[in-house]
Amino acid sequence: MTFGQQVPATPRIAVLAGTPQLVCAARALGVGTVFVHHAAQSAPPVAAEADMALAVDLTDTDALHAALAPLHAEQPFARVLSLTERGLLPTAAVAERLGLPGNSLHTVSLLQDKQRMRELLNARGIGPVHTAAPSGPADLAAFCRTAGGPVILKPAAGTSSQAVFRMAGAEAAQDVWRAFEAAGGTQPIVEEYLDGPEISVESFSYGGKHTVLAVTDKLVGTAFVETGHTQPSALPEPVLAEVAALVHAFLDAVGLAEGPAHTEVKVTQKGPRILESHNRIGGDKIRELLRRAYGLDVVALTAGCPLGLLRPPADPPVARRGAAIRFLTPPPGTVQNIALPDTDGTTAEIRLDVAVGDRIRPVRSSQDRAGYVIGEGGNAADAALLCEELAGRVLIETGE
């Protein structure tokens, strides 16, 4: 469908899994919604926001097709959409069964399998990175010796920085392998360690054409868990141009056709290298950073552009302000006391995910963080300074 093409008076989409934003954005555009949530869990609050809600096993494509096909025959869906990691593969699978446009199951599967993705990029010479799929600590040690330096062990389908380990040398293979398994790691892949600043790239695709919306500077703490994000990036323009060219080539290679993508990149001395990518908006409130810094509502674009209801961004937008988020990572232990600084007169918001009596764990994944401070400023540096100053005054006292 090209922009401006006629759509039914009341177009309808199916939304698989997720939070209220996509359903609410569709409804604001006059689009009907059928929300599908996983049958093994109770209906989330977003189900009440949709025109119809269904409980289906999201892992069963046959069941999804059986639930949606009669509705599609009665009033055709324009798209099946999702913006959550859990919903991406089922969305692509059932859309393909219904004969609907969108990102193919092949593309979405590639994005969720870091080993296949890396093999494709290496085969095409797009930011090549040495990689292997070890079957045990001996393979891991052998790869480390061949790579001649530190390596990264991670799950091929991992998210939220879970079970990601840096190994300095081959002698640590046994311990790192045990730690990987203890952290729930599966389908291990090992890659050469890429040194340099880590960034993420938000993009939007329409008709197979890609537009970079923003590049986000990242702060990464222990276990490669993000501790902060800042927009727009402070990297020099020539580097940003090189990053954009890499992301365009990458998205072409995996065949992304439409919608948002969140691509993580390392800027190395040999040039930028892809770490991973997802056909959704970045987590960690990057959606909110885009709104604050660029005035962009990417959720609305996701719902409206494929239906011809909104015009897709044709050029990279210019930041109007700076925006930042800093995550709270207090010492492990039981929360004894909490005190928050005053945010009056600022653009900042403080969100806590813990209360007195809760147990704070060592930060091994994104879920282990205790909350965040988000805010904006006249530029990226001002926004970062505001968030860091406030985060430094958040008291989350822990003890045994």
UniProtKB/TrEMBL annotation:
Swiss-Prot/TrEMBL keywords: ATP-binding, Ligase, Nucleotide-binding
Keyword presence, Ligase: yes
Chain ranges of the ATP-grasp domain: 118-307
Cross-referenced InterPro entries: ATP-dep_AA_Ligase (IPR052032), ATP-grasp (IPR011761), BL00235/CARNS1_N (IPR041472), LAL_C2 (IPR040570)
Organism, scientific name: Streptomyces chengmaiensis
Domain of life (superkingdom): Bacteria
The keyword Metal-binding appears for this protein: no
Xref: Gene3D superfamilies: 3.40.50.20, ATP-grasp fold, B domain
Alphabetical list of Pfam families matching this protein: ATP-grasp_4 (PF13535), ATPgrasp_N (PF18130), LAL_C2 (PF18603)
Name of the protein this chain belongs to: ATP-grasp domain-containing protein
